[in-house]
């Protein structure tokens, strides 16, 4: 028999069905709560609210489990490449070799960006943050690709998906090239997706492009680890914007803005800035631990804590190991890696952090790897966006295929009651 939840308000009982997921997660379906009982639920920050049913990513924060379409993040990070993972997230199954080759060929076919877009990029000052530029350029893509996607046509849906996967790395690379005063370029069809991205970012005029395999492997792994994370702030934004039937590019552009904030994707930049600050201050990690615990001090240990993981972040484990390997392989000796390890050790033994279940998240170590790969700090969140793109696409596609209604939360009003309007002279 299916489960039922009973809510009692003012002595009257109301019953609601309990929905169960494939991993036995349970949610009370309160669709009829307001109509039947005249109340709504209040849940600031949606800490206990499921906004959808989704078959893409499974996350168990208590046990530190993360799976894309049923495959563990550990196995994907070890065995798959980023484009395979993108296909898996978006279409639900790992691609055959033929499907993967076609997917990549179609992406390459759609990677050209309208020349006029360069004028838009030209209008930004060099000092602009790459995330602001990237979100604006992604939004501007709509002007050059105006037809809205007929989501009932699998072909149109596919076309929109390969278009954004093709053009987005070009835009991301251009934001960096603009900052570095380098000529805008395109990729090389003979290279893989991630190597192509790297080439577009770092190729120098007049010099032949060469990169170590270790660099591409590390980048590929980082992108996989960031590829989806169920209903986080930016993904919920993508689904919310898309739920009004705004197009894919508009929804992704909104997702980039949400990701920019230091409490979300911007944390990887904030972590490196924090570690640098600690280093310059003499490296006294205890002093900064005390600041993080002081409620009068706004300082937080960036890269620590997670809304969902309350045991450990499985991505952080993979990344910590990867940071050691990559820095070793590239022969980079970065003192902030030692500061990071010191902070982690202290925090894991500190009662404040233990009580609040605060552990290093994916971004505590990712910035150290990005830096070793020669990626400038301001580009860290752009790298996150590049990784998260397949997840946003998959979630947008699922939301549209499931014909989700427009997202429109309610509120409990706490403002003034009805008041008489007073003319300006009488106020
Ligand atoms: N340093 C010090 N204290 C912290 C930290 C931190 N990094 N994170 C949480 N706390 C404390 C809070 O002050 C609060 O303490 P209190 O109960 O005494 O008031 C308690 O832990 C709970 O914190 P909340 O902010 O309520 O937890 P929430 O789940 O809302 O926030 C978040 C999660 C935003 C990630 C938070 O831990 C944080 O700000 N971390 C630093 C930023 C960061 O690393 N963000 C990246 C997230 S991962 C990602 O986006 C990929």
TrEMBL record:
Q: Which InterPro entries match?
A: Citrate_synth-like_lrg_a-sub, Citrate_synth-like_sm_a-sub, Citrate_synthase, Citrate_synthase_AS, Citrate_synthase_bac-typ, Citrate_synthase_sf, Citrate_synthase_typ-I
One Gene Ontology term of the molecular function aspect: citrate synthase activity
Annotated Gene Ontology cellular component terms: cytoplasm
Q: Which UniProt keywords apply?
A: Acyltransferase, Transferase, Tricarboxylic acid cycle
Question: Keyword RNA-binding: yes or no?
Answer: no
What Gene3D superfamilies does its record include?
2.20.28.60, Citrate Synthase, domain 1, Cytochrome P450-Terp, domain 2
Q: Where is the active site?
A: 306, 363
Q: In which pathway does it act?
A: Carbohydrate metabolism; tricarboxylic acid cycle; isocitrate from oxaloacetate: step 1/2
- So what does this thing catalyse? oxaloacetate + acetyl-CoA + H2O = citrate + CoA + H(+)
PROSITE patterns found in the cross-reference section? CITRATE_SYNTHASE
Q: Which Pfam family is one of those matched by this entry? A: Citrate_synt
Domain of life where this protein originates: Bacteria
Q: Does the keyword DNA repair apply?
A: no
An individual GO BP term: tricarboxylic acid cycle
Alphabetized PANTHER family for the sequence: CITRATE SYNTHASE (PTHR42871)
Q: State the similarity comment.
A: Belongs to the citrate synthase family.
What is this protein's name? Answer: Citrate synthase
What is the organism field in this record? Salegentibacter salinarum
Taxonomic lineage of the native organism? Bacteria, Pseudomonadati, Bacteroidota, Flavobacteriia, Flavobacteriales
């Amino acid at each position: 028999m299916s489960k039922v939840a009973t809510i009692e308000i003012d002595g009257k009982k109301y019953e609601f069905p309990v929905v169960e997921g494939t991993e036995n997660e349970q949610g009370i379906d309160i669709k009829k709560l307001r109509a039947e009982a005249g109340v709504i639920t209040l849940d600031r920050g949606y800490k206990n609210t499921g906004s959808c049913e989704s078959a893409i990513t499974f996350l168990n924060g208590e046990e530190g489990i993360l799976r894309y379409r049923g495959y563990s993040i550990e196995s994907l990070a070890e065995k798959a490449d980023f484009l395979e993972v993108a296909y898996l997230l978006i279409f639900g199954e790992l691609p055959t070799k033929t499907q993967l080759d076609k997917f990549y060929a179609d992406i390459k076919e759609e990677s050209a960006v309208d020349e006029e877009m360069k004028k838009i990029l030209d209008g930004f000052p060099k000092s602009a943050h790459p995330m602001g530029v990237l979100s604006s350029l992604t939004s501007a893509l709509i002007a050059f690709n105006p037809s809205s996607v007929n989501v009932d046509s699998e072909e149109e849906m596919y076309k929109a998906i390969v278009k954004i996967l093709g053009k987005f790395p070009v835009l991301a690379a251009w934001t960096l090239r603009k900052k570095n005063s380098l000529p805008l370029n395109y990729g090389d069809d003979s290279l893989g997706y991630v190597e192509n991205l790297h080439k577009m970012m770092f190729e120098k005029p007049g010099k032949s492009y060469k990169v170590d395999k270790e660099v591409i492997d590390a980048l590929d792994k980082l992108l996989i680890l960031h590829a989806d994370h169920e209903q986080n702030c930016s993904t919920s934004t993508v689904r919310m914007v898309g739920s009004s039937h705004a197009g894919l590019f508009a929804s992704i552009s909104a997702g980039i803005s949400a990701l920019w904030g230091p409490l979300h994707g911007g944390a990887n930049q904030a972590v490196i800035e924090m570690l640098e600050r600690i280093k310059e201050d003499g490296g006294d990690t205890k002093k900064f631990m005390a600041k993080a615990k002081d409620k009068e001090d706004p300082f937080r240990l960036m890269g620590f804590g997670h809304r969902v993981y309350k045991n450990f972040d499985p991505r952080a484990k993979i990344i910590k190991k990867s940071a050691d390997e990559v820095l070793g392989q590239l022969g980079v000796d970065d003192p902030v890696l030692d500061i990071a390890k010191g902070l982690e050790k202290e925090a894991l033994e500190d009662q404040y952090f233990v009580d609040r279940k605060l552990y290093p998240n994916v971004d505590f170590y990712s910035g150290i790897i990005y830096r070793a790969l020669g990626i400038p700090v301001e580009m860290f969140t752009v790298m996150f966006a590049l990784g998260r793109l397949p997840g946003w696409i998959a979630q947008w596609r699922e939301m549209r295929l499931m014909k989700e209604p427009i997202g429109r939360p309610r509120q409990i009003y706490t403002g003034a009651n009805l008041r008489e309007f007073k003319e300006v002279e009488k106020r």
